[in-house]
Task: structure prediction
Amino acid sequence: MDVHGVPSPPDFPAETYHKVSYLLDTWPHPECESWEQARGGWHGVGYRFLAVASFDEAWRASLAEGGTAPTPKVRLWQETSLFGFFVAATAVIDCLSYAAFGAGALVQPEAFREMSTPETRQRIRTKDVPKRLRAAFPQASLADSLEVALISDEYVQLDRTRNVLAHRLLPSRRHFVDPVTKRLTRPSEWDLDLRGTETVEMTPDFTATPRGWLAQTLSTVMPDMAAFIRAIKAESDGSAKSSTSGVGSRRD
Result:
């Protein structure tokens, strides 16, 4: 199965992703701004996961070619892959949360009023989305599953790593070298805070583990997202049938 014309990674829940896409694409009155934002956020989920898969594969390939103490050219390849991986991985969750917020605004615009203008949309914070969904839709399981993801240790570490890479610095590498052979005795460590108190071994699992968590999280949250969109769509369909106003055309 493809995702936006590209073969889906095997760990991406493409079938559920397409179900949500269909529900949004067939929204009864797609002329509203919130629909555009929700749909764009959902597209971001797919494209960003494709990037995650690509950067994960690039990291493992660069590691196989040059190890953790490579030539400058391979080092650049590795650093680019790691930067792209952690930024894209966090963006998957950001886009998912943003799409959920936009979907809520489709039927309760006052409860999600930040969606109304470009300026106010900048105030939408990923970590606040479950609370906002729960207040407006107490019966929706989406708020619970999304909150479980956002408070997990895996997401907290993913978000922290993204923030360091995107806004602060390039982590150093700690190498463990045999004094006689001058060869590495164990995998190098990534020193996230430059103080040796927060280090991670630079192995293939460095990206494979968070990617696995991300894929599993999507497999859990996406069905709740589909159920949520289906429910509010049914509510909106009922409102549209009882209204005398016409339905506008949908933009591609």
